Amino acid sequence: GKENVDSRHNRGRGGETTRFHTVNVAQPVRFSRKCPTGWHHYEGTASCYRVYLNGENYWDAVQTCQRVNGSLATFTADQELRFILAQEWDLEEKPFVRKGQLRFWVGYQYVITNRNHSLEGHWEVAYKGSSEVFLPPDPILGTAMSENENVLCAQLQCFDFPTLRHHGLHSWYAENCYEKSSFLCKRSQTCVDIKDNIVDEGYYFTPKGNDPCLSCTCHNGEPEMCVAALCERPQGCQQYRKDPKECCKFTCLDP
Predict the structure, then answer these.
(1) Domain match, 118 and 199 both
(2) For residue 238, is it left (φ>0), alpha (ψ between -120 and 50) or beta?
(3) Is residue 132 part of a domain?
(4) Which residue of 3, 50, 77, 134 has the fewest C-beta atoms within 10 A of its own C-beta?
(5) Which run of H or of E encompasses 20?
């Protein structure tokens, strides 16, 4: 809508001047897809990604991702993986962050099929999802494992140096699933309201933007079926400012 009252003139019949005012005319609104604070959005998959630096074993990491409506990340294409590798994750000092590099659990498991002269096996997606998910190349086998273990879990290693990150340099490791490590969660995009609260599917909310008087329904992570309230300007006030986060709330700027 329009923030200030417009005064317009129009020549009517006979040369007389017609004066009219327009207050808060509703305009078409476009929304960009949003992720919760701390998550990175990738348009190619309409997904959000976040690295958790607190060290957890693979199974605990799975549960943490599920609590935020996601899962350990898998990748559908090289472009998605390159997007992940290019991100500047928040690498403050943590016991599970190696200097200059970052390794985190992702959503694959290495199933061992042969233990003769060398360990042989194949990658599987830990939690079946899209059939388009690609599988990593042969891994670097990590810590020593007992003869009872038949499954190792995937760690993706990327680097903190910008040149290495933007060239997509990375490695895949198959590690003991009970080792503690950082991990990468992936979830579908979501709705976030004007006050940075996450909104569940089907609920009403006011999206981020320039109009705190919009009420929309969250559908597939997008604001839809939006309705706008129109506000009259404050009476007895010539100059005023609208509150950017409260509908129909004004501050009078008159002396």
Answers:
(1) no
(2) alpha
(3) yes
(4) 3
(5) strand 17-22
Query: Domain check: are 65 and 176 in the same one?
Result: yes
The count of other CB atoms within 10 Å of the CB of residue 198 is: 16
Report percent pLDDT > 70 for the chain. 72
pLDDT of res. 144? 61
Alpha helices in 95-242 (DSSP H): 162-166
Q: Are residues 56 and 176 in the same domain?
A: yes
Torsion of CA 176, 181, 184, 185, to 10 degrees: 90
Task: Give burial (CB, 10 Å; 0-12/13-18/19+) of 119.
Answer: middle
Distance CA 154, CA 141 (A): 10
Residue 184 pLDDT class (50, 70, 90 cuts)? very high
Are residues 150 and 232 part of one domain?
A: no
Task: Report the C-alpha gap between 169 and 109 in whole angstroms.
Answer: 21
Among the residues of the chain, which ranges form H helices? Answer: 58-67, 78-86, 162-166
The residue range of the domain holding 84 is: 40-91+98-188
Residue 135 carries which DSSP code? P
Q: Is the pTM higher than 0.70?
A: no
**What pLDDT, in 10s, does the model give residues 76-116?**
888 999 899 888 776 555 555 555 678 899 999 999 887 77
Q: Which residues contact 67 (CB under 8 A, 6 or more apart)?
A: none
65 shares its domain with 174: yes
Same domain, 72 and 141: yes
